[in-house]
Specification:
This protein is mainly α and 463 residues long. 73% of the residues lie in helices and 0% in strands. The chain has helices at residues 2-17, 19-22, 26-43, 45-52, 54-63, 72-111, 116-119, 127-144, 147-161, 165-184, 191-198, 204-227, 249-273, 277-297, 309-312, 318-336, 339-350, 354-364, 370-380, 400-411, 421-430, 434-440, 442-462. The longest helix is centred in the first third of the chain and has 40 residues, at 72-111. 44% of the residues are buried.
């Protein structure tokens, strides 16, 4: 059964990675993969559960004496239903609820034109200056929002600033790199950092302190290399007028600042209350919801022109939410069956160097989705508690492995355009060719990625 699980996982992984050639949405593949693996696990429960979860399984039977007379398969199946699924689903739902809340707040800002406060201030027509402005704007926006939303906003901005398609591709590729780098050092900037933060593997102060500089370097290196090759000015382009005539600039800015403050409040909420981050995110969503209700109650608008949150929620990317559910449920099976522990033991035995392991995982994230890679790593290496020394010290809260994993999983996705959500968005919106990005930007992104790894190692040696 364990061999079958590995084969099914590899096939599912390939289906996700080859989404475009197969013309099958990766969400469908992820859901089918996750549920199929739970079915296989339940069928082989009697041979897997006692061997892998012996101590917990014995405690479960002691707490449920009515199962003493049942068959081993029934006992094992009940353990899966009452322990494994419940525990894993609880952890996964925390991440999904956090994402739903964050994506809804971002959509509220977007539908009210709040992002114009940023885009309207980018007026330069110098190619090199615009490259740096867009890069740094994307980098810091991605840290506050998320790399997916930031990529959409910035690529839409490019359409207003740059008419030539080939020139726009160059800036779009830089946006992909900057968005991924910007999301790696913030607890709310990327799905993988959210997973590590929600899981308690990293804390906000340490993540920013040690990952910000490597992330910045990973962006600056490729941007600097590209800036050396371009020169001149862009032709002037007439900006489009916003269709949101019923909303004033002051109201639009208020919604923008309130939304950003709501997102930034979440880490503060967690540090004060010690409650899970999804509670703070849903609290912030509730505040935004009340504000928008009062806002529209005070205006005389047709219902079709209103953008209340019940209407905005329909714009949230639910296929992405279901994708995370499917892939995280699949990884949960690998964790429950002990396969991830076996992989961790193999890496420890043959590599035994967290810097090399993380660097390899980051490069792999350019080929396959970084979400399952991080989920798998969290399952392979549990967080070490208490006073530990030696190699195990790399896996404590804010340990070297977790901090560098946040960087590598986020930034490594820039090496190939299919390696990140930002890259896939750029491909979809601008029709960028996989081969074009591979020839022109993959080596640049790899150079920035490796430079950031070196900077992180230097930080650890110095501090």
């Amino acid at each position: 059964m364990l061999t079958l699980l590995i084969v099914v996982f590899i096939i599912g992984y390939l289906a996700i990675a080859l989404e475009h050639p197969l013309k099958i949405d990766k969400t469908a593949s992820a859901l089918l993969l996750g549920m199929t693996m739970w079915v296989i696990y339940s069928i082989g429960a009697d041979s897997i559960v006692p061997a892998v979860s012996g101590e917990k399984f014995a405690m479960f039977l002691n707490d449920n004496p009515t199962l003493k007379s049942a068959s081993l398969h029934t006992q094992s199946l009940q353990y899966i239903l009452q322990v494994d699924i419940v525990e894993h689903l609880g952890d996964i739902c925390q991440t999904l609820l956090f994402l739903i809340g964050a994506m809804t707040i971002v959509e509220v800002i977007d539908v009210h034109g709040g992002f114009r406060i940023i885009t309207e201030r980018i007026t330069t027509r110098r190619k090199v200056r615009l490259l740096w402005v867009i890069s740094f704007t994307t980098f810091f926006m991605s840290a506050v929002l998320d790399n997916l939303t930031t990529s959409i906003v910035m690529i839409m901005l490019l359409r207003k600033l740059i008419a030539n398609k080939q020139e726009r591709w160059l800036y779009a590729a830089i946006i992909v790199i900057a968005a991924n780098s910007g999301g790696a050092w913030s607890p709310i900037g990327d799905v993988t950092t959210i997973m590590l933060w929600v899981g308690g593997n990293v804390t906000t102060p340490n993540l920013i302190s040690y990952v910000l500089l490597p992330s910045l370097v990973s962006m600056v290196v490729p941007v600097w290399l590209v800036a050396r090759k371009i020169k001149g000015d862009l032709p002037p382009i007439v900006e489009n007028v916003s269709p949101l005539k019923e909303i004033s600039n002051g109201e639009r800015n208020t919604i923008f600042f309130l939304g950003v403050a709501a997102l930034l409040f979440v880490p503060v909420f967690k540090s004060i209350t010690h409650l899970p981050p999804f509670v703070g995110m849903l609290f912030s969503l509730g505040v935004m919801w009340v504000f928008t209700e009062i806002f529209y109650n005070s205006k005389s608008l047709q219902q079709s022109r209103e953008q209340r949150i019940p209407k905005v929620i329909s714009r949230v990317d639910m296929p992405s939410i279901l994708f995370f559910l499917g892939i995280l449920m699949a990884v949960a099976v690998l964790q429950s069956t002990g396969l991830l522990s076996s992989l961790a033991l193999t890496l420890d035995t043959h590599v035994h160097n967290v810097y090399i392991i993380d660097t390899i995982l980051g490069i792999l994230s350019s080929i396959v989705d970084n979400v399952p890679l991080v989920a798998a790593s969290m399952g392979m290496y549990p967080v070490e508690m208490g006073e530990v020394t030696g190699y195990a010290a790399n896996f404590v809260v804010d340990g070297t492995f977790w901090e560098l994993l946040s960087y590598c999983a986020g930034v490594g996705g820039s090496i190939l355009i299919i390696g990140s959500a930002a890259g896939v968005i750029a491909m979809g919106l601008e029709k960028i060719n996989f081969g074009w990005y591979l020839r022109n930007f993959s080596l640049l992104a790899l150079a920035g990625y490796l430079a950031g790894v070196v900077v992180y190692i230097a930080e650890k040696l110095i501090y």
